[in-house]
Amino acid sequence: xxxxxxxxxxxxxxxxxxxxxxxxxxxxxxxxxxxxxxxxxxxxxxxxxxxxxxxxxxxxxxxxxxxxxxxxxxxxxxxxxxxxxxxxxxxxxxxxxxxxxxxxxxxxxxxxxxxxxxxxxxxxxxxxxxxxxxxxxxxxxxxxxxxxxxxxxxxxxxxxxxxxxxxxxxxxxxxxxxxxxxxxxxxxxxxxxxxxxxxxxxxxxxxxxxxxxxxxxxxxxxxxxxxxxxxxxxxxxxxxxxxxxxxxxxxxxxxxxxxxxxxxxxxxxxxxxxxxxxxxxxxxxxxxxxxxxxxxxxxxxxxxxxxxxxxxxxxxxxxxxxxxxxxxxxxxxxxxxxxxxxxxxxxxxxxxxxxxxxxxxxxxxxxxxxxxxxxxxxxxxxxxxxxxxxxxxxxxxxxxxxxxxxxxxxxxxxxxxxxxxxxxxxxxxxxxxxxxxxxxxxxxxxxxxxxxxxxxxxxxxxxxxxxxxx
Length: 470
Prior knowledge:
Elements lengths: L8 E5 L1 H6 L11 E4 L1 H9 L6 H17 L4 H6 L1 E2 L16 E4 L17 H15 L4 E5 L3 H9 L3 E3 L17 E4 L3 H5 L4 E5 L2 E7 L11 E4 L6 E7 L3 E6 L18 H10 L6 E6 L5 H15 L5 E6 L15 H5 L4 H12 L5 H14 E3 L13 E6 L6 H8 L7 E6 L15 H9 L5 E6 L6 H9 L1
Parallel strand pairs: 1-2, 1-5, 2-4, 5-6, 7-10, 13-17, 13-18, 14-15, 14-16, 16-17
Antiparallel strand pairs: 3-4, 8-9, 9-12, 10-11, 11-12
Organism: Methylomonas koyamae
GO molecular function, one term: ATP binding
Protein name: Phosphate starvation-inducible protein PhoH
């Protein structure tokens, strides 16, 4: 191998990085990449199957095959320029990074308690050997495995997580969909205000520096006795049009028997019931009412207003504890154990439709006929027309899975993504790299989407205390 230093870093990729993001080899810009032979062996073992990991591995193999095509032994030793192929990523012309394969035996003595036969330890041994053979090159191990990075740190090796999949650096910076207006907002920005009524809604047009950072369908409010709550309908950086939000806190304006219990829930119902908003994301801890609000709005729009033909609910089937194994029955029967939240909320919503046990049972049967449970495994290639699609536990989806689901929407379909970023059960996903975080950040400036972060738990005082203190 002929690895030139020239101020470039040499990133040694762990197998899990390529399994997680098949385009990772193109993400290091002008720096060089090294792939050990043991990584290629692990990729070969994981290429069979229908899972997303297997698909990613096969895509990596195609990239590598295209890079190495028509290359001779000398060009492989000198490093393959990553700009050899078109891979759909915008790459600057100055990004001249190269890909190096392990073409010879690299060995360096590991501590006796780290045998080289284990794949992770073989990679660590290669990183040690590269650092010794090329002392002028900054060799860095990139791995999604925390324990791998810990072992590397114990051996005084440079190791980093793969950060390119992170939407934002700090989850506290994630857009929350609401903004409290300053007490002097109207004095500062109300000089040229216009107001009018249209289709039973009140609108205000305001101008000033405060509106420069607003997003479409963001909810603004005054935290005082006025109780002012409005929705940003349009904004161009200099002026914005506000629409007064409807108040769903009273029984008179309840949605399928459900009333909003706090400001964020009221904002959520405004977004869920707006037919002009095609995509809604709801974040919140356990007990904030995400699933109940989404189902209540879906039933109201489907059963009362006839805007949608049916409600479809799906979720990622990631177990919290040990997997219970294969489940018998049809698709809906297999998904039923995963849909406890749906059943609990449907039982609550159905009980509000009648007083007697017979009426409640009849209502439950009617509701279940309009609510369908579908598995994520069979979503690829489908198109949903005039459906109210709820994606539960969306924090466990990768950005690629989220894209696959959202692109299933046909004309007249509304998609609701709900989840809790504090309950991610998928390996190698974090709050900053979750597909739910990804879509919240990417859709915040789109005029037909809305996002709300629910903050107050309304399940019970026991659930609230447990959420805050456990």
